Amino acid sequence: MSADLFAACDLLAQYGALVDAAKYDEWLELFSKRCSYYVKPRENHELGLPAGLIFCDSRAMLEDRILALRIASKYNLHNDRHIIGLPRIVANEPDGISIEAPFAVYQTEQEGDTRLFATGLYCDRLERSGDSFKISEKLVRIDSFAIQTLLATPL
Amino acid sequence: MSADLFAACDLLAQYGALVDAAKYDEWLELFSKRCSYYVKPRENHELGLPAGLIFCDSRAMLEDRILALRIASKYNLHNDRHIIGLPRIVANEPDGISIEAPFAVYQTEQEGDTRLFATGLYCDRLERSGDSFKISEKLVRIDSFAIQTLLATPL
Amino acid sequence: MSADLFAACDLLAQYGALVDAAKYDEWLELFSKRCSYYVKPRENHELGLPAGLIFCDSRAMLEDRILALRIASKYNLHNDRHIIGLPRIVANEPDGISIEAPFAVYQTEQEGDTRLFATGLYCDRLERSGDSFKISEKLVRIDSFAIQTLLATPL
Known about the structure:
- The structure is a homotrimer.
- Helices cover 28% and strands 44% of the residues of chain A.
- The first copy, chain A, is of the alpha+beta class.
- Chain A has one domain (2-142): Nuclear Transport Factor 2, Chain: A.
- In chain A, strands 1, 2, 3, 4, 5, 6 and 7 form a 7-stranded mixed sheet that branches.
- The A-B interface holds A 2, 5, 42, 83, 85-88, 100-104, 116, 118-121, 143-146 and B 3, 6, 9-10, 12-14, 16-17, 20, 79, 81-86, 104, 106, 108, 111-116.
């Protein structure tokens, strides 16, 4: 159990670091072959409403999003900084675990202003892969439906 | 020692998650039968002044505060998000440990604005309860005496 | 490996706590006899440009900076609050490890306003010292070249 929490902490640390370093290919490697990635406002989640801001229900969709980010999307250039809080394990099964972890993401714009971009809760399903984990489901429950600028880089 | 730090991390992760999910009854369960919960500005604490913003020196007072929050208090409706930093153990005794952990709390208002609500330091006395801990004393040392809106939900 | 990550977490927790409590002598003790401490904007670091905001390449320079902070420097009085995220180990050698950890620093001014001061990434080289570590190199890669007020207390 404590080894699982440890491996989950390690995965989350890598997750944040790879997005912040814009290493999106390595970031994709943290997901399993079959995976989903959703970004959904807390409000909709609590009301059982399906609409979200990002809905990738396969690895191919997630890869496509990264490709679009690189060659097609127009957005305010910025750097991300993820601060991810301590996770807790909410379910434990032979082939994986479910965890929750709070996060805050800051963005620094080209002019040098750093500001809070979003806070929320990661609700992740992690699949065992040897001694470590891969992400099979990631639900990013953001605290606000109101994203100030474009949601371009992954949360 | 490292098992203690581990259990402390787990308790803090639950603490933040339960407040943020507004699961106040489960949050109360993290405290021991005899407990205290104080919120005090750093300034007063450093000057040895007793005045604080919240002063609950029994479990009954803490339960009462949650009851008031649910049925009587008027306050700006919001969601909380706790980001709790890595804790350190500052005292170690047979029946428990004392820890410190920094925190930042964000609030998201009904209109969708997320802003920093408070930062500070948790100074906790944790009592052994089997393999885990219960909170017997919690001093929330907030960095500012100036709380922008009402202090309604627990820090 | 997991014992190393544990010891790194403990060191980071102390690092933040000691700066925030203004215990600068104890903070200095976290560094090894031969050490360096740089603060550099991310932009310059990525472009390979050498200029930084703080450049201490010996323990004596770091001690000098703390001395100046105490008796000579004029700056806006404030309290710091470090929220340091989960670290990851990026290199592992017999005599030490290299880690990265994201951070956010908040400052609370005398009037009681708390605001985000800086975000960034710690890139640390840690040297084994018995069961724990000492910092032999610390590169504070701040996300913005634009520091709003004076950079007085250590990041």
